[in-house]
Design a protein that fits this description.
By secondary structure, the protein is α+β, with helices and mostly antiparallel strands. The protein folds into three domains: 78 residues, no CATH class; 115 residues, Immunoglobulin-like, CATH 2.60.40; 104 residues, Up-down Bundle (Four Helix Bundle (Hemerythrin (Met), subunit A)), CATH 1.20.120. The protein contains eleven helices and eleven strands. The strands form three sheets. A five-stranded antiparallel β-sheet has the order 5-6-3-8-9, with no helix packed on it. α8 packs antiparallel against α9, α9 packs antiparallel against α10 and α10 runs antiparallel to α11. It is flat.
Length: 369
């Protein structure tokens, strides 16, 4: 009986092993080497693991998705191979590194009476603020530091040691400028008064900059430069922007029309003080034209000088009839000028001045106080 049971157990074990072998041969993992043989592809083509098995690659997923890949691996592979390769995932471009912050420095000087005054200016052309800044201007060999003559509000004077005048600045905003940092030296035995400006900063990056070496200008040169600037600013020139932005003749003519309106109603109300004020304002307006459009001066003065005298004589005499006659002659002179004038190719004949019928300001009592 014992022998029969033992035989039965042995037979059952053999059967179980045979069944497991059959099942193992039927699994897809066993089919994989068969796929490789029939498609001619290495296991690593379809599996992340080059030895095969486990996670499928994108190609392996495409192969497995074809219904006939088990019964016809070669045909299924032909379909996969014929399909266009999937586009690789785009690799984002690395973000550009921010440009390093930088400062620029310039220096100038002017000498007079045995001393030289230097000025340092620091600018931040970058798009980010720069902080923890050291600014300095050199002191020429043989010269001695005298005083810091100007320190910007955002800075503090630091030292005059080491052959330079130096300041500390907390920060300069993006696109900002700080200066001048000014200092004076006594010339002493110095034969070369040329200097350089220097700036060093720590935030947001460590950097420094040096100006070119600059000699100071003499007092005579400075005075000549000042005079040249004065001459340019005091003489009209269409090539200078400061003059091109000045109002031309037309806006001043409109102001003149206002003065003539006000003086008319003031005179009609017997308010000679107000009338006199508006004649004065008319003259001031014409003085502006003398400067901004000097080519107009001769013609305007030829009209205004006699007209102004008649108006003033009449108002001083408090003679309304005389004032009215002088007023009419003055506006007739305006119209005579308009008829014969062409400004910028535009005829002024259409601009005719007459006696006003309505005050331009309704909140004035033209009779006065």
């Amino acid at each position: 009986m014992f022998i029969v049971k033992r035989l039965t157990i042995v037979l059952m074990s053999v059967s179980l092993v045979a069944l497991l072998v059959l099942l193992w041969r039927a699994t897809p993992s066993e089919a994989m080497p068969d796929y490789a043989a029939k498609t001619g592809q290495a296991c690593g083509t379809c599996h992340v693991n080059p030895a095969g098995g486990g996670t499928l690659t994108a190609t392996g997923q495409a192969f497995a998705a074809i219904p006939t890949h088990i019964s016809d691996p070669a045909g299924a592979w032909a379909q996969v191979a014929a399909a266009p390769a999937p586009a690789p995932a785009p690799v984002p471009a690395p973000a550009p590194a921010p440009a390093a912050a930088r400062l620029t420095v310039s220096i100038s000087g002017a000498s007079a009476d045995g001393t030289v005054t230097y000025s340092v200016v620091v600018s931040n052309p970058s798009d980010q603020p720069v902080a923890d800044i050291y600014v300095a201007g050199s002191v020429p060999a043989g010269a001695t530091f005298s005083a810091a003559t100007n320190t910007p509000g955002s800075a503090g004077f630091f030292s005059s040691e080491g052959g330079s005048a130096a300041w500390l600045v907390g920060a300069i905003p993006a696109r900002g400028t700080v200066g001048p940092f000014a200092y004076r030296v006594n010339r002493g035995s110095a034969t070369d008064l040329s200097v350089v400006g220097f700036v060093h900063w720590l935030q947001p990056n460590d950097g420094n900059a040096l100006s070119s070496k600059v000699p100071p200008i003499s007092n005579a040169e400075r005075l000549a430069i000042d005079q040249a600037i004065s001459d340019d600013l005091n003489a009209y020139s269409s090539t200078l922007a400061v003059w091109r932005v000045q109002p031309g003749t037309a806006p001043q003519m409109m102001a003149l029309a206002d003065h003539f309106n006000l003086m008319w109603f003031a005179a009609q109300a017997g308010n000679w003080v107000f009338t006199d004020f508006e004649v004065y304002r008319a003259d001031e307006t014409l003085k502006v034209i003398d400067v901004t459009r000097p080519a107009r001066t001769a013609g305007l003065r030829a009209w205004w000088q006699p007209a102004e005298k008649e108006l003033r004589d009449a108002l001083k005499a408090r003679d309304l009839a005389a004032f009215t006659a002088a007023y009419d002659r003055a506006i007739a002179g305006c119209n005579s000028c308009h008829i014969g004038s062409v400004g910028g190719g535009i005829s002024l004949k259409g601009v005719k001045v007459i006696r006003p019928t309505t005050p331009i300001l309704s909140n004035l009592d033209y009779a006065g106080n």
